[in-house]
Structures are given as C-alpha cells and as structure tokens.
C-alpha cells in the first residue's frame, strides 16, 4: 500500500512569546493551522482549510494571539460558501486577507483582495494605548463584535522577509543563485548562528517556503540541518525545528550536537474541519 507523503510544515515565531504559528499543508490542497507553545510542550490544533494559504505573506502578532493570513479559495468547492471570511458575496470572492485568533481562521477582520497581487502584511509594534488603527492596510470591510486591540499592519512591499527581520534575522549575503538569498540569526547567547538559504520567485516573491538551513556553533564552519523544513531559535536559546518528515521538535545542545528533547509527529492527520470555538469569534 502506498504511504502518504509527510505534510509540509512552516512556522512563524511570535516576537515576544513562546508561540509558533504552524502552517501544515497536506494532504493535497488541505491546510491545518497549529498553535505550538514550545515552553509548555503543547500543540493546539485549529482550523482546516481547503484552498491555498500564503505563509510568507502572513504574520503573527508579537504576543502570539492574532494571525494575519492571505487566503485563496475557489468558489464552487463543496465547502463554499464557508465561515472563514465574513465578507459579503462570499460566493464570488476568491481571495481575501484577514486577522483571526490562532489557531483558527474565523475572521475577526477581513479585507477583500483583487486576485493574488497583494504582497501581504506583518504586525508592527503597536502603541498599547492607541485605538485600533490597522496601519497601512486601512479599515477592514468585515469586523467582528468586540473591542479590537491596537493592531498595526505594515505592507511587505519593499521589505522582503520582514517577519524574519523583525525577529532578529539579517541578510547575510546573496546566494550564487539569483533566486536565493541567505539570512542568518545568532542564538540569544551568540554561541551559535542559524543560516537559512531562502528561495524566492522574482514575480511572486518569497511564496516558496522550503528553506535550506545550516547551523554554525562556536565559530565553526556551518553544518547542514538536512532534516529541517523550518527552524528558528526559541527565546530561551533552544532550537525549534519542523522537519521534512512532519515532526515538530525542540532541540538542546548536547556535546557537539543538538539532542531532541521534545517532539510531535503531525503525519497521518486527516482533514476534519470543525466550527471554531466561541472565543475565536470575538475580539
């Protein structure tokens, strides 16, 4: 019997919280959103969506509570219209941007998009005393009940890899391949450095999210993290890895290497869309 391929995983780390928003793709065009609290060792499973998400045009608020996503969903599919957007005339709406509560995709605020031309937005640091102003994205066309927090969304245009840069990644150098760049991020205690060779398309940008990672420790030459589909430093200096085999892992230094101290297998999960809980439908 043929074995299903492992899901593709990509993460967005919260700037000020031990939270990672995990985009899990598979089977086929199904997506599953996860909230990974690596300090507690807990993964909360949330929304399933049959369509297309754009992780590199998405963002996670600094406290890990709110997820900005850009979504494409074709009319006529068996689960259309759906409860994800809240926009009027959803039957004819194929693309939109939205803010929801991680790990759900029920829109608390939503904006209609014209095709897939948007470059996406990211959460900038907002004034906690301010009213919700939304920043460059402008007022939403759909707004859920409740008092929206002061969220400030800044457009990615002209700021490639803005989410990574806001977390401490910096441009190391351009790769030998014109469609790639290399970014790096030191460990919090500067004892090691994580490198990512990021592929992109000159037309659509950084939508292709399979990075190639290397890790250099104590000034040594970088060594490949051959099993990493995504990696980043935890705030406490541990190494967070989503593997090409569908595992979420936390690794700690051990001798000359990094030992897996916690892991979760995300393979074999079948789509099971469920209504979002009540708390995810209000601000």
Q: Span from first to last CA? A: 46 Å
Number of domains: 1
Report the sheet with the most strands, covering strand number, pairing sense and barrel closure. 6 strands, antiparallel
Structural class category:
mainly beta
H and E order = EEEEEEEEEEEEEHEEEEEEEEE
- Summarize the amount of helix as a percent range: under 10%
The share of residues in extended strands comes to 35-45%
- Outline the low-pLDDT stretches: 76-86
Mean pLDDT, all residues: 83
Task: Output the number of helix runs.
Answer: 1
> How many whole angstroms does the radius of gyration measure?
19 Å
Structural commentary:
It is globular, with a radius of gyration of 19 Å. The protein has one domain. The protein has 1 helix and 22 strands. Strands 5, 6, 7, 8, 9 and 12 form a 6-stranded antiparallel β-sheet that branches. A 5-stranded antiparallel β-sheet has the order 14-15-16-17-18, with no helix packed on it. A 4-stranded antiparallel β-sheet has the order 1-2-3-4, with no helix packed on it. It has 283 residues and is an all-beta fold.
């Amino acid at each position: 019997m043929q074995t299903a391929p492992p899901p593709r995983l990509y993460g967005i780390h919260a700037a000020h919280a031990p939270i990672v928003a995990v985009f899990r793709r598979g089977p086929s065009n199904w997506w599953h959103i996860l909230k990974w609290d690596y300090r507690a060792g807990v993964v909360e499973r949330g929304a399933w969506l049959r369509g297309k998400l754009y992780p590199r045009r998405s963002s996670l608020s600094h406290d890990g509570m709110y997820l900005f996503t850009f979504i494409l969903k074709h009319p006529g599919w068996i689960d259309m219209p759906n409860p994800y957007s809240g926009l009027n005339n959803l039957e004819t709406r194929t693309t939109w941007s939205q803010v929801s509560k991680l790990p759900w995709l029920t829109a608390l605020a939503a904006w209609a998009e014209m095709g897939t031309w948007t470059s996406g937005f990211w959460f900038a640091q907002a004034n906690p005393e301010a009213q919700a102003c939304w920043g460059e994205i402008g007022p939403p066309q759909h707004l859920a009940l409740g008092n929206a927090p002061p969220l400030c969304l800044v457009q990615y245009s002209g700021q490639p890899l803005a989410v990574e840069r806001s977390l401490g990644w910096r441009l190391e150098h351009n790769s030998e391949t014109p469609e790639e760049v290399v970014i790096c991020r030191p460990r919090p205690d500067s004892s090691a450095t994580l490198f990512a060779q990021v592929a992109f398309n000159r037309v659509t940008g950084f939508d292709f999210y399979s990075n190639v990672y290397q890790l250099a420790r104590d000034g040594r030459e970088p060594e490949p993290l051959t099993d990493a589909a995504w990696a980043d430093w935890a705030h406490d200096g541990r190494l967070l890895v989503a593997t090409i085999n569908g595992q979420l892992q936390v690794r700690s230094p051990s001798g000359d290497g990094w030992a897996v101290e916690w892991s979760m297998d995300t393979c074999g999960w079948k789509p099971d869309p469920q209504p979002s809980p009540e708390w995810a439908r209000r601000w």
